Amino acid sequence: MSKGKVLIAMSGGVDSSVAAYLLTRDGYDCVGCTMKLCPDDVSHEGGCCTADDADDARSVARRIGIPFYVFNMTDLFKANVIDRFVACYRAGRTPNPCIDCNRTMKFAELRRRGEELGYDLLATGRYAKIEEKDGRYRLKKAADPSKDQSYVLYHLTQEELKRTLFPLGHLTKEETRALAAESGFLNADKPDSQDICFVPDGDYAAVIARYTDKTEPEGDFILPDGTVVGRHKGISRCTVGQRRGLGVAYSEPLYVKRILVPENKVLLARNEDLYERACTVRDVNWISGETPGEPIKCAVKIRYRQTEQPATVTPLSDGRAKVVFDAPQRAITPGQSAVFYDGDAVLGGGVIES
Are strands 309-315 and 296-301 parallel, antiparallel or unpaired? Predict the structure, then answer.
């Protein structure tokens, strides 16, 4: 008897392939699918979501004996992810498009399509864990700290967690690859994708020009006292904390501290001036479904590879929160996400506003 009907998001990589294998082995009625997200004329070298990736996913699905679909979502992806990415950079913020893709594509649109096929559960190859107790669900870090992806999943709700499976949460990457090799998957040694799928070469300015048909104007690099020390080639080429590639010659190293969009200027400062104690976060999601009624002590992570830092989070009105760190943090970046943790459990998170 089937444990449940599961739509598995398969990228063609080893992680989602093993996730599909484990669920099928464990008695779930599974169907695999790949999302076609990028136009055919976008280079994918070093990224993902290519026709070859779909072929790899199809090969794995065939080997484990499950149906497989490719869903063309290029228009939705452009509207929900690429256009937002472009708008954020033009507004002087540094977005995380992978979180937007998870939220709007994988856990919304893909789930909807699964339900249309009669599959009420969604599974991915993400490294995270879901635990249930008394009908309430908690999102927790993966067993393998080096692969934990709970940071990009803070947007999940109780209802979404209830209908989501993360089969790899208790595995290390090495164990995942070993299972793939034992199963005879051709992608067992396939490298992980490293880049944003629609910016495989890291040229954000080129993406913005492609999707806006506009070349960004140059502007001034300035010091805190207003002194002009150079020219930037467009604010989308700058992010808070950046030093490399500025092209500014000065008596000491300078870093991007703030992007002044209305003036089309970029404020530079010394490294020690990048540290701040607090930020405001918007669009906050509390995984419990309940906003705390008072400030909470927790740990907060402000970028994917950072270790969580002790802080106090105070809920505000309109889905916002104030985060005050115990110690100053370097380069708190608008547009990135701040995610709140209690030990290895994710409490929630939101987008850094200021």
Answer: antiparallel
Which residue shows structure tokens 């904390």? 241
**Tokens of residue 277, six digits:** 């104690």
- Is 10 exposed, middle or buried (CB count within 10 Å of its CB: 0-12, 13-18, 19+)? buried
| Residue-level pLDDT at 326 | 99
Task: State the Cα–Cα distance between residues 100 and 257, nearest whole angstrom.
Answer: 25
> What DSSP line would sit under 178-201, residue for residue?
HHHHHTT-TTTTPPPP-S-TT-TT
CB 269 within 8 A of CB 226: no
Task: Look at residues 254, 258, 209 and name the one whose alpha carbon lies nearest to residue 233.
Answer: 209
Task: Identify the H or E element spanning 120.
Answer: none
pLDDT of 35-67, one tens digit each?
Answer: 999 877 665 555 566 778 899 999 999 999 999
Q: List the catalytic residues.
A: 101, 197
pTM: 0.93
Question: Domains of the chain by range and CATH?
Answer: 5-182 (3.40.50.620), 217-269 (2.30.30), 274-352 (2.40.30.10)
pLDDT at 354: 87
Residue 243: what residue type? Answer: R
- For residue 210, the tally of other CB atoms under 10 A from its CB is 15
What is residue 7's predicted lDDT score, i.e. its pLDDT?
98
Q: Give the Cβ contact number of residue 29 at 10 Å.
A: 17
Using CA atoms, how far residue 7 sits from 21, 49, 77, 181, 226, in Å, is: 13, 18, 19, 23, 55
pLDDT of residue 49: 65
Average pLDDT over residues 4-29: 96
**Per-residue pLDDT averaged across 312-339, rounded?**
97
DSSP state for residue 273 in the 8-state scheme:
G
Q: In Å, how far are 97, 136, 195, 275, 343 from 298, measured between CA atoms?
A: 26, 20, 31, 20, 8
